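Issue 218. Parser rejects a valid record. Input:
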Amino acid sequence: MAKIVLGMGTSHGPMLVTPPDTWGSRLPDDKRSVHHFEGRTWQFDELVAYRAPENLASQITPDAWRARHVRCMDAIERMSQMLSDARPDVVVIVGNDQMEIFGNDCIPAFSVMWGETIVNNMISDAKLAALPPGVAHAMPGYMPDTATYEGVPALAKHIIERATAERFDVAALKRLSETETPHAFGFVFRQLMKDRVVPTVPVLINTFYPPNQPTAGRCHEFGRALGRAIESWDSDARVAIIASGGLTHFVIDERVDHLILDAMKAHDFAPVEALGEAIFQAGTSEIKNWIPVAGAMDELGFDMEVIDYVPCYRSEAGTGNAMGFVCWRPPQNVA
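Output the parser choked on:
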């Protein structure tokens, strides 16, 4: 049977693939957006006033940005080396789509790609021009000019069949897109795999878009089923599972991040469910990409190690991206 040898969770935001002196370029979009924080919506100026006691101005100086950028780059390099050292034959990546392949006419709650080929080309000039301020210059961090990677149809088909047998209605995709890959997956290919892409099964969770976002609890149950499916695959393959996305953003909430990280370390999911679904909206919803991997690791009994947690603020309103980097390894690191 296949053997899971590593679990990982990584953030993937644009601040990880752009120089720190450009982080402020997102501010025009921050200032005109409606933000989710503490279970309700806020205007930018409301958040500035509400969070004034936190003295977030000290978190957005050039020196602070440079220091946080260094920590993030160090964590990514450690994660990349750890993945290489684990020598997986196959990687299962759990990520989400942000209208990169799906559209309003069809957004499945859970999807698995069981095609033979993953295409990841740079998006068109028209799409680049339509991106929010501060995003277009990040795209090379997710997409090369052109690339094609191997899928793993046999494992993906097995995951679909086993998940369906366990009462999960999974959309089966023969391709992600004819031209590009969602950035949740591209980040792993470019930054953790360094373009030496291991054959991959993409698993997609609809984290962003109502009305069919799976609950945090359902994502955890799906992850446990995913772990069982992988380990029941009739193969001697070594498999790594990687979550891509999160942590809290577009407004950072360190309390929520630490509660979730602590719950994952303790193999105790109840505090995460108790947060309520109103917390898991907008960018913060990408934590639901981590939850299935945590569920699979709970199923296996792998303990979580935090490589680093780096809250990267970009305004006094607390906008930005809390960057998390974690791994789960077999007991006593025996793989």
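Fixed in the parser; the record now loads. Residues 3-329 form a domain with the Protocatechuate 4,5-dioxygenase; Chain B fold (CATH 3.40.830.10).
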